[in-house]
What does this fold into?
Amino acid sequence: MKTFFKFVIAGLLINVPPEVVNQIYVKRSVSGFIQTAIVYMVFLALLYPVKKMFNRLVKSRLLNALVWYLLLGAFGLYIEWNLLGNRGAAWYGQIAMFTFWGSFGLVPMVFTEQPVLPAIKKGLIKYCLPWGVLYLFIGNLNPGLGLLIWIIGSVGLNYLFILYFWQLRSGLVSGDLIARHPKKLRLDPKAIR
It folds into this structure.
């Protein structure tokens, strides 16, 4: 049960703050924000058992993470394009939406599933915390600019996701290798073979 709550909270922490800018600052709808937060909570709660089933089907950690991210990103674009009417967004907006929806599954995975990669967890926190504070603060002053900062930051978030995939691919994720080579797990792409 503890893992379930960590999964849902990690997903909410990465995906609810952008809705402050979108729903409250841009659309001026507190009720829209509350509804969206509830929908996200339910979505994450439903996503958790689906992820557990997916883990039984796809044993390779790299393939599991990569396909999971791509599936959720594609699902999210389908929702954005067909249900929310965001098909006409610029290419960088499309990447941000893909990343947003992919992070629904990937960020909780990083924080709740084995192998635990401390460098990726720390990297996500060090990146997302100042980025979130920045786009929320700027979004309060200028909602359009806050949304743009969120979009640019979302595109940049893919760098950490790529590092995560590289570390899974590198084979440095078994407990023995982590214990013997902790320095190889830093956020330096040159350290990843």
Remarks:
- The chain has eight helices and no strands.
- The chain has a mean pLDDT of 87.
- The two ends are 36 Å apart (CA to CA).
